[in-house]
Design brief:
The protein is α/β, with parallel strands linked by helices. 29% of the residues lie in helices and 18% in strands. Strand 6, helix 4 and strand 7 form a beta-alpha-beta unit.
Length: 335
């Protein structure tokens, strides 16, 4: 496999609010279908066409800004954005309906193990379990530690990704098998009510939703993305392409990454305007968006070390085959 790369881009971190807020995420569809892995023809304007599927939330503010402020066009790209509530489920469409999809490390690794040939072309958000923390598992009333979750129901936003997989790994380290608990899909905004009613006994959540739960006196059980237990940096989400397409479209990838860098720079200089994307495009309440540090947590540097910590823990819980041995460097865009 030809391995391509990108030089490290702008780095920052996304600290969020400590108060709960309702986020309405609107999904939309409509992407053309194609099995061609080359973008050599481009659009009628002569620009390269790039089809992107993304989760419409603050994690991905930079691509919306890059589109609205013209940074994609400036760099020769005709970008087609498709919003989806669960981009990870679209992995089989890489190189067909979509050129780039935003996913988490567990989803990327499972796709690689299934032979779907994903390549991490750019990071998007990086967190850690201390100063830059974004992810939580919070126990409900009567839950003092992870061991107390045996036989309980845990609310998760989806049955894949960092929060779900990280929670499974946390349970495993406490001697609890995945079959010993029940996972229930619950939107972040509904987790407080579900904990209060007893529908769930724990929740895997993020900022700003963790604030309400902790304010209710509930127990912080740890960060599900800290799979090493060291508190170090962890990739929350990044951009993935189909390996043959990536190998044939280096100029397109480089243009995408440059547009991302320029969008972040614009956001850093225009934070109030950038926050309006959270209101208008992601439907955050104005009061929440006004305080949201929209440019923090953002980091575009893609590294093999961001994937490696997940491999052995996922093998241990049976979510990646024991024989999976693809070098992580083969899954990252490099020069």
């Amino acid at each position: 496999m030809q391995v391509l790369s990108r030089q490290p881009g702008a780095r920052a971190t996304l600290l969020a609010l400590g108060a709960a807020a309702v986020m309405t995420i609107a999904a939309c569809g409509g992407a053309s279908s194609s099995n061609d892995t080359s973008n050599s023809v481009g659009s009628q304007s002569g620009q390269l066409t790039l089809r992107i599927a993304y989760n419409p939330n603050p994690t991905n503010t930079t691509i919306v800004v890059a589109d609205q402020q013209g940074f994609f066009k400036k760099n020769g790209l005709d970008v087609k954005l498709t919003a989806t509530q669960s981009s990870g489920t679209l992995m089989p469409s890489l190189g067909k309906q979509f050129d780039l999809i935003t996913v988490t490390p567990p989803t990327l690794l499972q796709a690689a193990a299934q032979g779907l040939k994903p390549i991490l072309v750019s990071a998007q958000n990086v967190e850690n379990s201390t100063k830059l923390r974004n992810s939580y598992v919070i126990g409900g009333k009567g839950i003092a530690n992870v061991a107390d979750l045996k036989g309980k129901t845990i609310g998760v936003p989806g049955l894949s990704g960092n929060l779900y997989e990280g929670a499974i790994i946390m349970l495993s380290k406490a001697g609890i098998a995945k079959a010993d608990v029940k996972f229930l899909q619950v939107p972040f905004a509904n987790m407080a009510n579900s904990l209060t009613s007893g529908t769930i006994q724990a929740a895997a959540t993020i900022y700003p939703f963790q604030g309400q739960l902790l304010g209710m006196g509930l127990k912080d059980l740890g960060s599900p993305t800290d799979v090493t237990g060291t508190g170090g940096d962890a990739l929350s989400a990044g951009w993935v392409g189909y390996a043959p397409w990536v190998a044939s479209n280096k100029a397109t990838i480089d243009a995408f990454n440059k547009a991302q860098d320029e969008a972040l720079a614009w956001m850093q200089a225009n934070e109030d305007q950038a926050r309006q994307v959270l209101v208008k495009d992601f439907h955050l309440p104005e009061a929440v968006a006004a305080k949201y540090p929209v440019t923090q947590f953002v980091s575009f540097e893609a590294k093999a070390e961001q994937l490696t910590p997940w491999v052995e823990p996922m093998k241990a819980v049976g979510d990646v085959p024991a024989g999976f041995s693809t070098p992580m460097t083969d899954l990252v865009y490099q020069n």
